[in-house]
Amino acid sequence: MDGPTLRSTYDYPLVALSVLIAIAASYAALTLAERVSMARNQARTAWLFGGAVAMGTGIWSMHYTGMIAYRLPVQVYCHVPTVLLSLLAAIGALLRRALRGQPTENECAARRGRQSAYGCRYLRHALHRYGRDALARHAPL
Fold it and tell me: Domain boundaries in the chain?
């Protein structure tokens, strides 16, 4: 490839913060999951919603903190509405999965596992796509 190449670096304290955010979000979601197992009916739904919001926000925060840690020699801007749309996509994907519940006796657990994997794949795809779009809209070239 001929032409100029942008030299990039990482802000390692921000990378470490991104990892800490992921750990904290996972801990919060697992703590809320413990509450879900003890709750019933509307309380269970509320705990599921809280867990999806905690994990979705944590994944989203970790993702964007990691993106900010990637330094380029040009100024890069984020399109705020697109960034917020990616937050809603993260929470929505996890909430959809959380509200599906446990497999019934007639439903194959492996099938539900595949559906969960597809949900995680959608979440990852949405964050990457919206993240790229948020940066690409205003990045000076």
Answer: 9-136
